[in-house]
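I have a small job for you when you get a moment. Can you supply me with one protein entry, sequence and fold together? It will help me judge whether the discrete encoding reads sensibly. Write everything out right here, beneath this request:
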Amino acid sequence: MRILLTNDDGINAPGLKSLEKIAWDLAGAKGEVWVVAPAFEQSGVGHCISYTHPMMVQKMGKQRYAAEGSPADCVLAALHDILPERPDLVLSGVNRGNNSAENALYSGTLGGAMEAALQGLPAVALSQYLGPENVDIDNPFEAAEVHGAALLRKILTAAPKTEQDYRLFYNVNFPPVPAAGVKGSRVAVQGFRQGVTFGVEPHLSPSGRRFLWIKGHDQRVPSTPGSDADVNLDGYISITPMRADLTAHDMLSQFESLNT
């Protein structure tokens, strides 16, 4: 199996090292693992692509490249320039922090997986929820590292064999516990945490210039029951099948009167 890896935390992120271990477990001794990741952190860029300016790509080692662009850029660079053949699977992560609930909409980790799906490839985004039980342990990514490969095998086995148009990609979030504390996995919808939106916090620089920092909120706020963030906080890995189709299909009939 040939596997392409990317992330949004950057080429030197510890979560990427965990993802490489997961990928080699999946690929096997005769497989290939390629890494094309951002040269610098790209958290929060979503599905951004560098449409208006070029990006530099630098070889960092065997089958390992850094690109001055977003995770989606990295996937495009890998598929259309770097890799000699298309990969069998694209993995994005392991992100430091959860991409459950509303975080999924901002996530560069999901942006990389989404671009791979738009390019017709199976893709999974993996993120590690952090909390008091795992943030300060020797390896905060332990839950993902220990359970990741087996979970991915199950996802790939259950996934549709043929797809058209907006094909599925998968948002996987590991709970904020050490590996031994993981209770299992749950297929879950994307949740919504009430009142958990991004905001800004103003600061003055020493020169008196005014700057705004983007500021997040508490990630342990209760979410929609049975949703991704909800099961994560209960100790379960969440698996959310997604598509890039943003149509509100449940509302189409509501607006039929607009058809003329």
About this structure: The domain at 2-192+223-258 is CATH 3.40.1210.10 (Stationary-phase Survival Protein Sure Homolog; Chain: A,). The longest strand covers residues 89-96. The mean pLDDT is 96.
